[in-house]
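Risk register update: the risk of archive-format incompatibility is retired. Evidence:
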Amino acid sequence: MKATSKAQQKAAGAALSAKRGETRPSELVGAAKEMYDAMNEAALEEMAATQRKGKPAKKEE
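Archived output:
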């Protein structure tokens, strides 16, 4: 699954960092914390690798 916004891509990167042990999971908040709990490392890597160019700052609801 690819990120649909810059904020989503950024949160996936933070969650991926925690999954890899580079940051502490306790430092995560909001969407990053939810992604950390719900997604595996491969899915987070795919979402974090999404290009930001042309993406909106936040996902439209």
